[in-house]
Write a structure and sequence with these properties.
With 127 residues, the protein is α/β, with parallel strands linked by helices. The chain has a single domain (2-106), classed as 2-Layer Sandwich (Nucleotidyltransferase, domain 5), CATH 3.30.420.130. Helices cover 23% and strands 18% of the residues. The chain has helices at 50-60, 73-81, 94-102; strands at residues 2-7, 25-30, 36-40, 65-67, 85-87. The protein is globular, with a radius of gyration of 13 Å.
Length: 127
């Protein structure tokens, strides 16, 4: 299965980014082979619609499940419409998230876990 994990870095040792739409990037992992690739999140710094744009990007890359800290309502709607399962509350490294998924330790969600624009709050006032 092709997993998409929101990530703060470019490899499996990176931390899971707690935000989906404004994550630095995504690690796409084949849960069977372990092969992975990094995908920069071009929507991370956009003025609006980051969640929807990020969701469409990972759909286009063939992701079948998303592992992240939280997912907002716009991303949730787009991912749900595409039939992609979302697993939230994920933390630690990307590798640990993949192992938790494979071990059946994660539970999918059926509603957004963050309000709209939640990922922008920590960015205000920073240079």
């Amino acid at each position: 299965m092709k997993l998409c994990i929101s990530s703060t870095g470019r490899d499996l040792s990176a931390a899971v980014d707690p935000r989906f739409g404004r994550a630095a990037g995504y690690i796409l992992v084949d849960s069977d082979s372990g092969a992975f690739e990094y995908l920069e999140n071009a929507a991370a710094m956009s003025g609006g619609g980051a969640g929807s744009r990020a969701a469409q990007t990972v759909i286009n890359k063939g992701a079948q499940a998303v592992l992240t800290g939280n997912v907002g309502p716009n991303a949730f709607a787009v991912l749900s419409a595409a039939g992609i399962k979302m697993y939230t509350g994920v933390s630690g490294t990307v590798q640990a998230a993949v192992e938790a998924f494979k071990g059946g330790q994660l539970q999918s969600v059926d509603a957004p876990t963050a309000p709209a624009h939640a990922g922008t709050g920590g960015m205000r006032g920073r240079s």
